[in-house]
Structure formats: structure tokens, C-alpha cells
Fold this protein.
Amino acid sequence: MYKLMVLYVLCLVPIYARFLEVDPAREFVNSYSYTGNNPVNLIDPTGKLVTVARQQRKGQKDLVVIRLTGKLLIEAQDGIRGHKGLSDEMIESARQRIVDQFRKSFSGEGRKIEFRGELELTVASESNPIHRSDHIFRVVNDGQIPIETSREEGDKSNVAGYAPGFQKNIWLNVELIKRELAQVGAYQNSGFGEGMAPTLERTSAHEAGHSMGLRHPNKNELLFNNLMHQSSEPRGGLEVVEEQILGIEYLFNTGQLNQDN
């Protein structure tokens, strides 16, 4: 017989240096490995917390996987204008839209690497409580996003979203839920709605980028259709580039991400 060790929440067989259970996130080619065989740089207390992991692949570009685990917290008491509260169907639709756009925006290929974004997002409830490790997507009423503004008397109405850099709270205006992506015209495939209105898809991915340390590009950077432009910037879109992914990887490896608020 061989001895077993419990490392965080998984059972390890030391003699084989392998776990008896697969990693719940299945982030690596070998799902029985711990942190993709990179324990020097990464820890994984629950099998879910690897945020950035690089897979070296023979004969191919390295694959960088960026993964967030979080909760969708509905704090909007009044629901959307014109609706009484938020139905379960509306909440689930919003959750799926956020997940899908994170995956699309943070996945792609550059000159040196391929990259993939993954978001495990569930709805917070009494039976699914928020953990300290979670990124929290907070859906709040219009005017309740905690950001300083230059408007008169600190008016915060129509602020679409906010996320402090490097931290795990992401605020979203509940009014975004009713807005749809523009399907035709000048703003098609831009991430904006009609009239360049902010949308749930673009705002949630944009603010997640801020939580992972990405900043707004300056006017001299030739980044067209980029996710991190402010919503008032015509060059805004839904894409991120390789340099931004490598920046997130660097911040993660140097311990600058996932700070408590």
C-alpha cells in the first residue's frame, strides 16, 4: 500500500507525484498534474485558482491561459427601468453574456503566443456564497457605482462600470442588461450598442481587464478595436493584443494581481 497526502483539497500519491482526482478546471493537458507542473510560480488551493498559466508545447507557440473564478452578485434592488426586479432568466442570460465575452475578448493568437480566456462565473446565493478568492461582478442600480466623477455634485448616473486596478471587485450598471450589441451599421462588431452606447458584454470584459492590471491605451498607441479604450473612444472594440496578455502574465507571476479590496 502507498500513503496518501491531502494537498489543499486534492489527494496526492507522493510515490507517483500525481493526484487521484483531476483538476476541476481541467486547465492543463494532464489534468492530474498540479498547477501544470509549475509549483514554483503557481499555487492552486481549490483546483480553481490558477489565474494565469503558460503551457509550453513542442513545435507550437506557447499557450497562455487566463482564467478568473468569480461570482455574479445582484445588488440592484429596483431592477431595470421599466421592469420590476430581475427574473432568474434575465440573471442567467446576463451571466452567460459576461462569460462568453470574456472568453472571446481574451482569446487569440499573437506572434509569440496563443492565448485563451476562461471565466467560471456563478450566481452568488445563500447556497453558493462568495469566497475570498472570488472576483465579484456586482450588478448595482444606476448611480450606485462607487467611482469619483468630475460631474457636478458627484453625479454618478449613467456610469456603466468600474473596477479598481489589480483588485477583485467589478461594478456593473444594471441598465446594461437591457442593451444589445449593435448588429448592423457603424457599430457592428464593436462591442457597443446603437449610438455607441455601452453594453454588458464590452463593459464587463473591459472592467475585468482593469482588475487584471490593464490600463486605458494612450492616444499615441495604435490600438484599433481594442477592448481597453474608454467607451468614448471611437477606436474602442472587443479585442486585446498579445502585449496586453503578456502584461497580465507578468503581473500575475510577480504577485501583483488578485489583491483584496
Observations:
- The helical segments are 88-105, 200-211, 242-253.
- The chain is about 15% helix and 20% strand.
- Residues 51-253 form a domain with the Collagenase (Catalytic Domain) fold (CATH 3.40.390.10).
- Residues 1-9 have pLDDT under 50 and may be disordered.
